[in-house]
Amino acid sequence: MLELTMAAVSAADAGATAGLQMAEAPSEPGAVLRVGRDAAVCRLATPGDWLFVSRVHLEFLCGPDGTWQLTWLRGSQTDPSAEVTVTVDGRVYGVPYGGTVPLPPESAGEVVVQDRTEARSVNVGFYHEGRSTTP
């Protein structure tokens, strides 16, 4: 199971949790959770006028072995308007534009999409439960 919580934070409301959204999906091959501006495609949708976030910005995909990976999908622009980082066990990792990183089993952390031009971000907390060992 992968559980996500998302908050859109701007300098005006830093620290506020208004608009907190949650989504989850079982750790089954092919399961997917998306984050972006397009609410028709994304389980977690950011404000529509936050153009530093693509229509479909992040994709969490469960692989054939039940582990999850995060992909920062390339948008329509050559250079991104944001930076994406993942924090796991206190370590911060940069995610390359168009790149994919694995999420360790039985881990918790945060993915941050930071606007390069303003003090605002999309913060997505995740909790990745390990696979069940029950047959």
Give the beta-strand count. Answer: 11
The overall pLDDT, averaged over residues, is 90
The low-confidence parts are none
Tell me about the biggest sheet? Answer: 6 strands, antiparallel
Please indicate the percent range of residues in DSSP E strands (runs of 2 or more).
Answer: over 45%
Overall shape: it is globular
Number of helices: 0
What is the alpha-carbon Rg in Å? 14 Å
Spatial arrangement of strands, main beta sheet: 2-1-11-10-7-8
Order of helices and strands: EEEEEEEEEEE
N-to-C span:
16 Å
Q: Which structural class matches the secondary elements? A: mainly beta
Q: Give the % helix.
A: under 10%
Structure description:
This protein is mostly beta strands and 135 residues long. Helix content is 0%, strand content 48%. The chain is built from no helices and eleven strands. It has strands at 2-10, 21-25, 32-36, 44-45, 58-62, 68-72, 82-88, 91-95, 100-103, 107-115, 120-128. The strands form two sheets. The chain has a six-stranded antiparallel beta sheet, with no helix packed on it. The chain has a five-stranded mixed beta sheet with strand order 4-3-5-6-9, with no helix packed on it. It is globular and about 40 Å long. The mean pLDDT is 90.
